[in-house]
Please model this.
Amino acid sequence: MAQGIRDRVAIIGMGCTHFSERWDAGPEDLMVEAVGEALTDAGIARDDIGAAWLGVFFDEQSTGKSALPLSLALRLPNIPVTRVENLCATGTEALRGAVYAVAAGACDIALAVGVEKLKDTGYAGLPERTKGTFEDLYLPGSTAPGAFAQLASAYGARHGFSMEQLREAMAHISVQSHANGARNPKAHLRNRITKEQVLAAPMIAYPLGMLDCCGVSDGAACAIVTTPEKARALGKRDFVTVKALQLAPSNGVEMGHQSWDGSYTLTTRLAAARAFVEAGIAKPREAIDLMEVHDCFSITQLVLMEDLGFSEPGRAPHDVLAGRYGPDGAIPCQMDGGLKCFGHPIGATGLRMAYEIYLQLLGRAGERQLAAPSLGLTHNLGGIPNRNVASVAIFGLAA
Amino acid sequence: MGWLSPPNVRPAAGERAVCNWDEDSLTLGVEAARGCLRGQHPPRAVTLASTTLPFLDRSNAALLATALDLAAGTETLDVTGTLRAGTTALAQALRRGDAMTTLLVASDAREARPGSQEEMDFGAAAVALLLAPADSAGSGPVLAQVLATAHLAADFVDHYRMEGEAFDYALEERWVRDAGIAKLLPQAIATALASAGISAADVQHCVLPVSAAAAQRLVRAHGLDKAQLTDTQRAACGEAGVAQPLLMLAAALEIAIPGENILLVGFGQGVDVTVLRVPANAATGQRPLAAALGARREEKSYTRYLSHRGLLEVDFGKRAERDNRSAPSVMWRKSRQLTGFVGGRCSTCATVQFPKSRVCVNPACRASDTQEDLRLAELAGRVKSFTEDWQAYAPRPPAMYGNVEFEGGGNLLMEITDAAAGELAVGMPVRFVFRIKDVDRLRAFRRYFWKATGR
Model:
């Protein structure tokens, strides 16, 4: 019986760039910036790294395929580098590669880097892309907001919420994310907004207005991982370990089978259940101290509260409005501003979430620091509700 | 366009049918054919008659037959080049000696220059008829029998459209009326009536797809009653080109009673005349034309109409720059799925799915190679979720799409057409229509797929 990844790998250094429209920086600048911070944090040299994983989503748009963008940017000493891509779970997938390599004993120290340079497209929103030679022939020419907006109509129908009621809860989520982002110097969007502004914003894809959508940002984030033994040998006393790292891709049920009603993300539920088992957590609502979830759109964050098991079915709008997921709530969510305000450079996002949990667990989150959290969860949803790759990772302080 | 040509606009009355951005003569033809074939045995031959076929060289009739999921052995033919294409094809199909049923689809969606008389007159429409030789065995009730036909060829150029031109060039209406219609039609009509063994007085319905003034003259010349003239439908949908005489025939058949005779005339560089009789055991009570005219949506924006027709270049934003290159090898491999909207039904668990795949999507089944073909096009559907997307490129913003569940199971994220913002709802029933999916401007190509519509 496989024992899973719990406590077998330690994170000894992390880095994250300022996420923004980085007109001044290309992907290589972003990678150098993030990795530099992580190396200093870990107290190791670049040549101590035994293997690296690079996560990039829009390869042609951003920085190119393969190991080369990372190897070239950092002038790595020809160590193995693996480029991975798993939609918006790409950053977490890169971390998974590095973590598994260390757990397998293939190398002592591994590096996971996620990077995305989106703002060279010349237009707002995510870049246009093909869905492949067959699917382009029948799937709608959809956008991310349009695909996620579907959740709102289906959720409202299933749980008996009018769109006005749902939009109010969604607006609350965006207002909270902006308030959180305002306290994060690395966040893309640091302005506070009001519920009225959210509801009055131009419609992007009904019922998602502009302020229901996350930022399209440039950025990079990274993690340096090793074994707990090596971490101690490097002089680390308090450090963060990986408690669970799970991935659940769709297999076609949501897109093709009538059992899915469009109101939830199936894979999140599967990945979360596995992660809690891997982490040995019997009561997640009591155990998890904070979370960073894939709030690409306000409605996504809302339904995720149920998919992750933190709200009862049909209760997420009430819980959100009651402040359950605010900084003073039972389980603070998106303390760093989330995708909404920290920003969403796709390949970097999973690692950016881990970065916030890492800072919070180590008490280094500055103005937004929570009181002594010990377990944090990150979640990505790559793709669209109809089919996607969900990842759930849990991090905690080493025992 | 009243500022340009008040004489054109002032006498205009009624409505004209125009295509949505995702419709053309082919999609109109498919829609007409589906209605015609409902409850019928599939035809063995398909003739598509039009002067506005989307492809000059690529069998439009074969594409139409694939959209109808007809057998691979179906004979297909495109007929074009004259407004008589439909009436000539009708006569030819009936003259076949091999008892072969033919689906005749007459469709036209002619473009007109803004401000022209044609812009006021033209309508887009398609008509489908199922034809069988009189001696064919086992045919059920018929709508009408053909008694006689007569034909006349004459290079009388009342209008023309050269290769590569978007618009017709029309000659003076008075000359067409006096020197063309008034001179050429009587001769052919007389021949056909004589051949049918009836006189003009025996004709209850005159299908004369000509101007009202010209029709009046013909009525007088033949000693006919004005009341015998079949409505041209010009006020209801406009002048429908190749589809026009058959559209009027459909109008006549909706009101004709057994024993009545119909005179069907096609005019365009010659004349076709067909004399038909509604038999005693005729299938009556069908009103497809009334149904089609009733399923209308008003286009209230002239600039949007111009944009749909490619007559006004608007800024659709950078997302519209996407390269819509198609992979013909994939289109061929998946032809029945994409064009015929044929999905799969698992022979183990009966789950319906699109696309048809090697492994069943039902999480409780997942059996391999169990899927049988199932045409989804004629199934009912239901909207499970939707959006109105203002960010996506769409020729008619917002882009509307949603999860649609098929009657009997299966789900697909589909475009929803012929709908405006605010009209969609979860649970809304939909049916499926064959439409233009994308346009590849770089390679001058158009590809088709099925969409959901609440109409």
Residues 295 and 455 of chain B are 7 Å apart (CA to CA). Chain B has 13 helices and 18 strands. Chain B touches chain A through 54 residues (CB under 8 Å).
